[in-house]
Amino acid sequence: MSPKDKLTNLLREYVTCIAKQIERLKHSWATVKYTPMGRRATVLEAIEFLESQPVFGELVKATMLAYKGKSRAKMLTSMRTQVKHFFRRSGIYVDCFEKGRVEEFEGIQTLYEKAFTAREESITYLATLEGVSFTELIEGVTLSRKEPLDFGSFLIRRFSPEELFELVGNRSNEIFYPYATWDVSKLSWYWFLVTQRTEEVSKAGTIIVDFGDLDSIRRKPIPNEISVLCTALYKIVLFDWRPQGLQEEIGYHWHDLGINFSVERLQKHRYKLVWEPWYGFKVPIVGKIIPSLIDSPPVAPDTTRLETIPYFNHRGEEIDGPLKGFSLNEEETLKFEKSINDKVDLFNDRLLEEWPFFQVSLDYLTKAFLIDPFASAPEQLLWHITSLEALLGRSEDKEVVGPLARRLSRILGSNNSQRERIKYQFRKLYQVRSDLVHGNPWREYSSLYLYEARNFARYACLWFLKLARYNREQNKTLPSRDEILNGIDSGNILELRPKK
């Protein structure tokens, strides 16, 4: 008998054991009234009994021989754990105990073989976009948008509690993995950035540890938990996110400012304008869904990290609800979709490999975006300027601020007047930056500096993207960073400069 045939027989025998155990439990539940907690305890007790039987041990050995070609004592412990995970995570145990019957054996056999022979798996990441909502007008009423925003390599969407419950496997998690049970009711309030990544499945009994970078300094401006979302976040962060300012009633808006404004002039305005700091949305949670049925599920997201504010429901009762910062209506959502789609064909790994300096700049732009300016305004300002330095700075420059101001003004200014204003404003901005990094205390600087720093960095990144698009459309090789800066410094940027 071949190892595969022996495995099939033992798998069938174990499934039969499950069916017999179900009959015993059904009789117990018919004669004794259990609480939900007591019922769960009887299920776990029955499964512990099943997995202690000789047939389960033989099934583990047969699985090792059939799929790994050998049976070593050190590897059997790992394989035993994987077989346990399979029956728990696949829903076979739960289906049996809930429906009172075992599913068709052929289906179980196919699922078992697929689980133990997979070489790759597609891991899904769900990141909460806290403070973001997309709405649509239905019969004169503004409601949350129902359809997801599909950008090919990632989605932005909401889930109903039922959809999340099924997606994350809460049905099995509630019984076998309480630590992995998601709070689907609370998380259904939020819009998620959803992306997938294919990863190699690790072999049974092996632990991979990479010591390659142990003795090197690594630049990691983006937190580990969101690093897998970087490419999607770059595109999103470059959109013109505009918080609702405090000047709406007198006709001043964030979008009226752009980069061609004077902080000092606005500070002297006769209305004594007060501007709240510019801020982005937050990504406090990144959930991970592993499809592998032979591994334990990841820990559920910690929803205590989500900020809530009180609301009143239709009955006048005070309830907690999600924080709201950006609510994009249909027109604004269309602009957002266009902004992302314009970058889809260009913004890829090839671009970031050819222009590593550009990825460095985007990393710092994203880091600044995710910082709460109400808690750390100086840090947001510093990272935005660092993003600019990654694009336009040179280590051999005798001074920093002058060349940066000149290069920034040349790529963003449309005429001499604009270029002079940009140079002046950047110098003022860099003076604030210098006060911070040279040990001077943080003074009461206008929050408009934060918005100005954000827009300088964002507009500069967009200019480089347009430059890349221009060269791609002309079937030209992307110019190097030195070639770009030489062109800007010499004033010969007609070929470099994309159309504004």
Tell me what portion of residues adopts beta-strand conformation: 5-15%
The profile of the biggest β sheet is: 5 strands, antiparallel
Rounded average pLDDT: 83
What is the ordering of alpha helices and beta strands? HHHHHHEEEEEHHHEHHEEEEHHHHHHHH
* Order of strands, widest sheet: 4-5-6-1-7
DSSP summary, beta strand count: 10
Tell me the number of helical segments per DSSP (H or I, 4 or more residues long).
19
Number of domains: 3
Helix content: 40-55%
Given as residue ranges, the uncertain stretches (5+ residues, pLDDT < 50) are 246-252
- Basic shape: elongated
Decide which structural class fits the backbone: alpha+beta
Q: How much is the radius of gyration in Å?
A: 29 Å
Alpha-carbon distance between the two ends: 73 Å
Structure commentary:
The protein has 3 domains: 3-117, no CATH class; 118-202 and 223-236 and 279-344, no CATH class; 244-277 and 345-500, no CATH class. It contains 19 helices and 10 strands. It has helices at 3-31, 36-50, 54-68, 73-89, 92-99, 105-117, 161-167, 170-176, 184-187, 230-237, 263-267, 330-344, 349-354, 356-370, 373-392, 401-412, 416-437, 448-473, 481-490, and strands at 120-128, 131-138, 141-144, 149-150, 154-158, 191-200, 286-289, 308-312, 318-322, 324-328. The protein has a 5-stranded antiparallel β-sheet with strand order 4-5-6-1-7, with no helix packed on it. β2 and β3 (141-144) form a beta hairpin. The longest helix is centred in the N-terminal third of the chain and has 29 residues, at 3-31. The N and C termini lie far apart (73 Å). Mean pLDDT is 83; it is low at 246-252.
